[in-house]
Every structure is written in C-alpha cells, then in structure tokens.
Write a structure and sequence with these properties.
Blueprint (H helix, E strand, L loop, with lengths): L1 H22 L1 E2 L1 H11 L1 H22 L4 E7 L3 E9 L5 E21 L4 E14 L9 E17 L4 H67 L5 H36 L8 E2 L12 H11 L1 H24 L2 E13 L14 E11 L7 H67 L5 H36 L1 E2 L4 E2 H4 L2
Parallel strand pairs: 1-7
Antiparallel strand pairs: 2-4, 3-4, 4-5, 5-6, 6-8, 8-9, 10-11
Helix pairs in contact: 2-3, 2-4, 3-4, 4-5, 4-7, 4-9, 6-8, 7-8, 8-9
Length: about 500
C-alpha cells in the first residue's frame, strides 16, 4: 500500500512538472487574453471606466431628492456688547450667550426648468447665561415646523437641462472607450509578441546556420588539404562560421530583452521564460467595406463623441446668451413659524404656529458693458462653427481610416500566403544549393547567396504574420466588431 501511494505521489509530481513546463508555452491569443486581464494597461483601462461610471452616478444624483441637515452646535459667545439702558443710554455690558440652530432640508431639482423645490424644518435656541441687573438667565426657542419653497431662475442658462442631454452621451462614450482600450492592448501585445517571436526564430536559424557552417567548414578543410579549393574559400567559410556564432549570441541577448519586455507588459512576472507558438493559422472570414464602416459608425466612441461635441458647442451658446441678457431669480417660501416664551419647553414651538410667507424677486439687467456680452455670444457661435467643421473633417478621417484598414487587411492576407510559399521555396533552394556545394558543383558565393535568401524569406514571412495580426486587431478596435465570430465586441465583453 505504501508503495502504491509513493508511486501515486511520483506520478502527481511528474504531471505537475509537465503542466508547469507546458504553461510556459503560449499562443498569440493566450498572451493577449492574459494581457487583457492582468496587465497594468488593462487595470488602467478598467480604473478609467470605473472613474467615468462614478462621474455619471454623480450627474444622476443631481436629479434625485437631496436630504441634508445643517446647523450650528454650539454658537457660544462671550463678549462686551452694547446694551440699551432704561433711561435710553447705552452701556457696554458683559454678555455670555449661546445661539444654536438646526435645519433639516429636503430638496428636488427639476431639470427641464432648472427649478429647485424644497421642504424645510428648522429650530433655533438662544441661551442667555448671565445674571445681571437687567435680566436673569433664560432660554427661548424659535423655529419653523414646516415650510415649502421654490427657487426659479428666469432667463438664465439651465445647466441641468443641457447636462441631461450631454452626460449620458459622455458616459456611453466612456464605455466604448473601455472596449477600444482593450483592443489597443491586443494591438500592443501583438507587437511585443512578434518582437520576441522573431528573436526566437532568429536564434533557431542562427543555431542551424552554426551547425551547417561548422559541417561545411570541416568538409572544406579536408578539400583544402587535398588542394581542391583555394585558401580564400576556406577563410570565407571560417568567417561565415564565426559570424553565425556571433548571430547566436546576439539572438540570445535579444530574447532576454524582449522576453522581459513581454513578461512585464502582460504581467507574467512569475514566468522566467516565454516560449511562443508562431500563429500561422490565419482566420478566414468575409469582410465588406460598407459592413465594416456600418459597424464602426454604430459602435465606436468617436461617433458618440461627434454628437457630444456638437451639443457642448450649442450649450456654450446657450450659456453665453443666458449670461448676456437680464437675469432674475424668483424665490418663494410658505410655511409655519413660531417662538416660545422664556424657559418654556420645546414642545410649545409646535402649538398654534403662525403663517409665514416670503416672496422675493432678484434681477440684474445689463445696461452698458461695452460689447462684452455680445463678444461672448459671438465667440461661442464661432466656436460652434469650428466644432462643426472639425467634426465633419474627423468624420471623413474616421471613414478613411476604417476603409484603409479593411483594404490593408485583405492585402496582408494575400501577403502571408505569398511569403509562406517564398519561405518554403527559399528553404528548399538552400538545401539543394548546400548539397551541390558539398559535391563541388557550385561555388561558395552561390551557397552564401542561398543562405542569405533563406534567412530573409523567413524574416519576411514572420513580418507578414505580424502585419496581418496587427491589422486584424486594429480593425477590431476601429469597428468594435469581431468579424471572425460575427458578434459585436461591446456586447461580448459585458
């Protein structure tokens, strides 16, 4: 039984070690998913989205009832005050008193008109602590058990009404920006992925070249000893061998640097070395320029931003006109008020209260301002025109960017096919050329040319893959649509 348990433990450790070893091998999509979940950039995007959410919640709270309490507890005062005497004269007498107040207020804003409605109840207590020839210590209450009021701005800029049109757009724009930020992470991760991928391929090529050049050099030494090749050819092969060894050292250094860069970007700090799989499987999906443009206009944050910018320009004109004309505020308050006798209980405040009514109209009418208000209105109108022209130009650039990306993606798909075939052809040509050189059918220059073309063909193939995948994720960012699966990204991520 103990042997069976021991054997099971060995198997478990072996599987765990194998799993850990496999975990260091990543595809492009795996690296991208990791970066979108745990990279610093993804946390910044998520935090920005959260910040915009709470800004939107702050905006919405402006249209909900607000309950607040305020007061002064205590309001103690000890000083010499001017006190009128029975004979009509005044004396500075020591005064020691406390005046405390407490107010409870419920208010509600009406966005359509900018009106403020409120309900209020308040209590004031005054304590006189000094025992003088004039008065004994006492306390009294004054307050309003209940009052209702209204504050109505007239002819003024109604920020609440404009915010109700602008802020929802700003919030929706921020949601789209969140998904665009994730696609930006995909694009940047793709670039870093292929930086490391190319370094790993270069190392693999360099090691193979070292092995091939070493074999060819040893064979060439024997042929040189037999007098079949010139010393110059032998020295050229030795130099080529040394260069290939130097390329191995450079590729190893590039891998260390780019491996660290990719691990830092994705947040894979617990993994020492990343081994990447070349993404040669190109997704096959049909894409139409008009369809891509439709999705881009429907999903991108810029589309919402265009409308928001126009509304903000209109709001600036409304504000300038509101500030330029006459301003007035209507204030009305109706309720009950009362006071108590000296040293009477606070309950007397609510017995037989009297009616209270306050109506006020404050106004401000400009007479001469030397064109200041008119200039502000004209400035806002000019800014509105500028915003309109800028939005029109941005819309054209927006469409052009999408259409260009669609056409480029189609071209890059074909480019991958061509460079893949060229890579295979260059590899076969090098193998044939090397074999012919070993039997003395061709010169060393022909073999070196085939070697260089083989390495260049491989680099072009990897570069074409990087260009395609970068363009692919760029198109996702520009349209917020997954053409491969046929679903919008904004709903897929929610």
């Amino acid at each position: 039984m103990n042997k069976i348990k021991y054997f099971q433990i060995i198997i478990a450790l072996f599987l765990a070690q194998t799993a850990c070893a496999q975990h260091d091998v990543y595809t492009l999509r795996e690296i991208i998913n990791i970066a979108r979940k745990q990279s610093i950039a993804s946390k910044q995007v998520a935090t920005t989205r959260e910040n915009r959410y709470w800004q939107f919640m702050t905006y919405r709270s402006n249209y909900k009832p607000q309950l607040a309490i305020d007061g002064t507890l205590p309001g103690f005062n000890r000083s010499f005050d001017e006190v009128r005497q029975p004979d009509g004269t005044y004396r500075f007498m020591p005064v020691s008193s406390n005046s405390s107040d407490l107010n409870l207020r419920l208010s509600q804003a009406i966005g359509a008109t900018g009106t403020q409605l409120f309900l209020n109840t308040s209590i004031v207590r005054f304590d006189n602590f000094l025992d003088t020839d004039m008065e004994d210590p006492y306390y009294i209450y004054r307050g309003s058990p209940l009052e209702i009021g209204i504050v109505q701005p007239l002819f003024q800029y109604n920020r609440l009404r404009w915010d109700k049109r602008i802020e929802p757009l700003r919030y929706e724009e921020s949601q789209r920006e969140y998904f665009e930020g994730l696609e930006d992470i995909s694009v940047n991760t793709t670039r870093r992925f292929f930086d490391l991928m190319l370094a790993q391929i270069n190392l693999e090529i360099a090691k193979k070249n070292v092995a091939n050049n070493d074999t060819i050099f040893k064979i060439a030494q024997g042929r040189y000893n037999l007098g079949k090749i010139a010393e110059n050819d032998l020295l050229q092969l030795e130099l080529q061998l040394m260069n290939s060894k130097q390329q191995v050292a450079q590729a190893e250094l590039d891998i260390e640097i780019r491996n660290l860069r990719l691990r830092t970007w994705t947040g894979l700090t617990n993994v020492q070395e990343l081994h990447l799989v070349l993404p040669e499987e190109i997704p096959d999906f049909a894409i139409d320029e008009k369809t891509a443009l439709t999705y881009a206009r429907a999903n991108r944050s810029e589309t919402i931003a265009f409308e928001r910018r126009k509304l903000e320009a209109n709001a600036q004109i409304a504000q300038a006109k509101g500030d330029a004309g006459p301003n007035a505020d209507l204030f009305a308050r109706f309720g009950m008020t009362n006071r108590t006798d000296r040293n009477a209980p606070i309950g007397d405040l609510y017995k037989n209260p009297e009616t209270q009514l306050i109506v006020q109209m404050g106004f401000q009418i400009p007479i001469v301002d030397w064109g200041r208000r008119k200039s502000r209105v004209k400035t806002a109108e000019a800014n509105q025109k500028l915003v309109k022209y800028s939005v029109d130009q941005d819309l054209l650039n927006f469409d052009e960017e999408v259409l260009t990306q669609v056409r480029q993606l189609k071209m890059l798909r074909e480019q991958v096919k061509i460079t893949r075939v060229a890579d295979e052809v260059a590899q076969r040509r090098y193998d044939i050329t090397k074999s012919r050189y070993l039997i003395g059918k061709i010169a060393i220059t022909d073999m070196n040319l085939a070697l260089r073309e083989k390495d260049e063909a491989k680099a072009r193939y990897v570069q074409s893959l990087e260009d395609f995948w970068t363009a692919y994720f760029n198109l996702r960012r520009l349209t917020l649509y997954d053409f491969e699966r046929g679903v919008p990204i904004i709903t897929d991520e929610l």
